[in-house]
Automatic annotation (TrEMBL):
Keyword Hydrolase: yes
GO molecular function, one term: hydrolase activity
Organism: Calidithermus roseus
Cross-referenced Gene3D superfamilies: 3.90.320.10
Protein name: ATP-dependent helicase/nuclease subunit A
Length: 161
């Protein structure tokens, strides 16, 4: 379910668009499920995408001057090379925003501080910009800013800075 939601958001697909809906339902991750399970999964995917779409132009700026969905990153840190995919990095005016979409059933931002700190630091080092960092909890339609202090603290635990 999370894979489908992230893919649809990354493609700027709308669940209300019948072609987008059919394309989502035809993704390989759906093959193992029987028709009833597929219907249930697609219903949940639709609810999450509806909440995301409701945030566009309100809490989530739209349109954007630059937009990088599903942005791969790597960062050498603490003797390890951390790799990941940033759900979305974009610029509106002079503001850079890094977003991570969550389908969790509970809002627990601290679970993601290290992940987001790595993403932020990779962008800082590679592009020389310091993006605002936010978690977007799709089940709740909530955007949770994550402060620089929390992110820097999470990095210090690994890197000893």
């Amino acid at each position: 379910m999370g894979t489908l939601v992230h893919y649809a958001i990354g493609q700027n697909w709308r669940f209300s668009n019948p072609d987008h809906y059919r394309n989502l339902e035809a993704q390989e991750v759906m093959f193992p499920f029987d028709p009833d399970e597929r219907q249930s999964i697609m219903q949940e995917v639709g609810e999450l995408l509806w909440r995301y779409e409701a945030l566009l132009g309100k809490g989530l700026p739209w349109p954007r001057d630059e937009d990088y969905p599903e942005f791969p990153m790597a960062l050498p840190l603490g003797g390890t090379i951390w790799q990941g995919v940033i759900d979305r990095l974009y610029r509106v005016g002079d503001r850079w925003i890094l977003e991570d979409y969550k389908t969790d059933r509970e809002i627990e931002p601290s679970r993601y501080h290290f992940q987001l700190a790595v993403y932020r630091e990779a962008i800082r080092q590679a592009w020389g910009v310091d993006p605002e960092v936010r978690l977007v909890y799709l089940r709740f339609g909530e955007i949770v800013p994550v402060g620089r202090g929390a992110l820097e603290g999470a990095l210090r635990e690994v890197d000893g800075r």
